[in-house]
Design goal:
alpha/beta; Quinone Oxidoreductase, Chain A, domain 1; 7-stranded mixed sheet; 25% helix; 22% strand; GroES-like_sf; NAD(P)-bd_dom_sf; Enoyl reductase (ER) domain-containing protein; oxidoreductase activity, acting on NAD(P)H; ER
């Protein structure tokens, strides 16, 4: 059987190392993708250090978003042919993870556009939280569905950690996770969109749709005061991509009764039943069977949305030496040294 180079954890809490593993064959509804780029996320170092309940088998290949070229298609696949350029979200199995040179992808969740590997996880997390049907999300009408574009005009949103990849489009937090949340919130008409971030990212975030940027270095105790300077409208929706215990509680306390908060890490919020506030843990994957139909509808729109610049990918930094460069990149993420961009690696540059 043909083989490939992969970066994996040989055991739980182990150290990343290069290895050789078989190249999988796509199932009837899957495609085999030759990975040209894989993104690096905080989840990848957190799993290494503290483990994760969904990673049960070791050695484990991680990496959860990528872009590449379709090499083979399953017998039922009509969406793609060999040679298509696609981007996609991975999943937490060795067949579907992206720290390797080939990956198996559910065909309906591979978008026909070779934008970059900086897109899928952040975008999926934002979309999942805002638009997935309950109980998986808040069930707002997506902007690509009839009546969804601009529907939520004059409804405010507060985004904690807006320069992260999830925040800018709308996995686990770093100063790059919520940019996609801001973008899809803009398409849905939410306004004002108030976000915390380092002020040097103000130009980037306002270009994506944020209306106001609050300095993330201000004490959280001043958050309500800063929001009140922008709007007198009660805060009904908070998205927390930072998701420390302190930011979660600050975001929750900001909400009025009936409000909703989505957090990127397991909730630690001290809640009271009489508060009547909803807390949602974000996942950012449409691979589970109960989410696939909604995810398929989203992915079917992405080629057009990026082509028409309704959504824009993040700035990226390419790590040197392919898969070998991922370890140093994860260390930089861990130490909060990345802001306003996404780290990616080219697996075929591995020495």
């Amino acid at each position: 059987m043909p083989t490939q180079t992969a970066l994996w954890l040989p055991k739980e809490f182990g150290q990343y190392e290069l290895a050789t593993r078989d190249i999988g064959k796509p199932g009837p509804d899957e495609v085999l993708v030759k990975l040209m780029a894989t993104a690096v996320n905080p989840l990848d170092w957190k799993i290494q250090e503290i483990g994760y309940f969904m990673i049960k088998d070791y050695p484990a290949v991680l990496g959860f978003e990528g872009a590449g070229i379709v090499e083979d298609v399953g017998e039922n696949v009509i969406e793609h042919v060999k040679g298509d350029e696609v981007f996609f979200s991975g999943f937490m199995t060795n067949r579907h993870s992206t720290f390797q040179q080939y990956v198996i992808v559910l065909a309906v969740h591979a978008a026909k556009a070779y934008q970059a590997a900086s897109i899928p996880v952040g975008l999926a997390t934002a979309v999942d939280a805002l638009y997935s049907p309950k109980p998986h999300g808040f069930a707002f009408t997506p902007p690509w569905e009839e009546g969804g574009r601009g529907k939520y005009k004059d409804r405010s949103i507060v985004v904690l950690g807006g320069a992260s990849a999830v925040g800018q489009f709308g996995k686990l937090s770093n100063e790059l996770a919520p940019s996609f949340f801001i973008q899809v919130a803009r398409l849905s008409g939410f306004s004002p969109i108030i976000t915390t971030a380092s002020l040097h990212n103000t130009t980037l975030l306002t270009s994506l749709g944020a209306t106001h940027v609050v300095d993330r270095h201000l004490p959280l105790s001043s958050l309500a005061q800063e929001v009140a300077k922008v709007t007198s409208t009660p805060t009904n929706l908070v998205f927390d991509a930072v998701a420390t215990s302190e930011t979660q509680q600050a975001g929750y306390d900001l909400l009025v009764s009936g409000g909703q908060i989505a957090v990127a890490l397991p909730p630690t919020i001290q809640t009271k039943l009489e508060d009547d506030k909803q807390v949602l843990k974000m996942w950012g994957s449409f691979y589970p069977p109960e989410k696939r139909e909604f995810g398929t509808r989203m992915y079917s729109q992405l080629t057009r949305m990026f082509a028409e610049a309704e959504l824009v990918p993040l700035p990226v930094e390419v790590l040197p030496d392919g898969l070998n460069g991922i370890v140093a990149g994860l260390e930089r993420l861990k130490n909060n040294l990345i802001s306003g961009k996404k780290l990616i690696a080219h697996p075929w540059d591995t020495a």
